[in-house]
Amino acid sequence: MKSELSISTPEIKKRVVIISQADKLNIESQNALLKILEEPRDDILFILETPTLETILPTIKSRCWIINFSPLNITDIKEYLLYRFANKINQNLIDKILSNYNGENLYLIIDEIFKLINSSSPDKILENENEGSTINIIELFRYIYLSNFQKSLDYIDKFNILSDRNEAILFINDILKFSHLLLKTKLSEENKETELIKLSKVIDEESFQNVIEYLTNAKNYVENYVNLNLVFIKLFLLIKNSFIKN
């Protein structure tokens, strides 16, 4: 991008650079972007799109004009998805996927629909037993990866997992399957990039084995102990410590 912007184009009076999902930029990329923003040019406009500012460097935020947009109306989203994916996915499945919409994760919703349409996606592995669980687990892992403890527990609570012992056991089993799949995917990245592969690239395999070991015993822990919060607090810490941030 830097090399392209350095090229002089007299016939173009103004250029716009749009960086989608800017929250996914690692520290190295953000620092490189910061160097460009520190010496802004009048003929270039940068637009950084992100559902959250939590992972954006303060030095970048201080150089930007922050504009907040209200979440899209779920009715309008549904109408668009039914039009966009007509004859490719049924309305009931779209309704089910949209039940996870929180105003910030629309791009994840659309990504998930593409994965469902494309049967080669490795995410399909988890859908046979508990359709839709992949969406929930990936989002949970994302909150944990961003070290957002409260959102992680809020997300779990959103699905009544902490109040239902049987649901908690099922959810732990799903995470256990996901953990095995994550390590397996990291070892074999022959398929195209997906959420699983993106997550696996920042996993420390050795420490992540501790997560699997804990999850293997978590079912009995949930059955014998009253405080489910302790299980998920431990889960949060284990997964968080298993990620290596870029």
Give a topology summary.
Blueprint: H1 2-5, E1 15-19, H2 27-37, E2 44-48, H3 58-61, H4 74-84, H5 91-98, H6 106-117, H7 133-145, H8 149-158, H9 165-187, H10 195-200, H11 205-224, H12 228-240
Parallel strand pairs: 1-2
Helix pairs in contact: 4-5, 7-8, 9-11, 11-12
Write a short abstract of this structure.
With 246 residues, the chain is mainly alpha-helical.
What labels would you give this structure?
single chain, 246 residues, mainly alpha, Rossmann fold, 3 domains, two-stranded parallel sheet, 4% strand, globular
Descriptive report:
Helix content is 55%, strand content 4%. The protein is mainly α and 246 residues long. It folds into three domains: 2-61, Rossmann fold; 71-117, no CATH class; 122-240, Zinc Finger, Delta Prime, domain 3. Strands 1-2 form a two-stranded parallel ribbon. It is globular, with a radius of gyration of 20 Å. The two termini are 20 Å apart. Residues 119-132 have low confidence and may be disordered.
Overall pLDDT score: 76
Stretches with pLDDT under 50, minimum 5 residues: 119-132
Which descriptor suits the 3D outline? Answer: globular
Question: Might you state the CATH topology name of the largest domain?
Answer: Zinc Finger, Delta Prime, domain 3
Order of helices and strands: HEHEHHHHHHHHHH
Q: Kindly report how far apart the N and C termini lie.
A: 20 Å
CA-atom Rg in angstroms: 20 Å
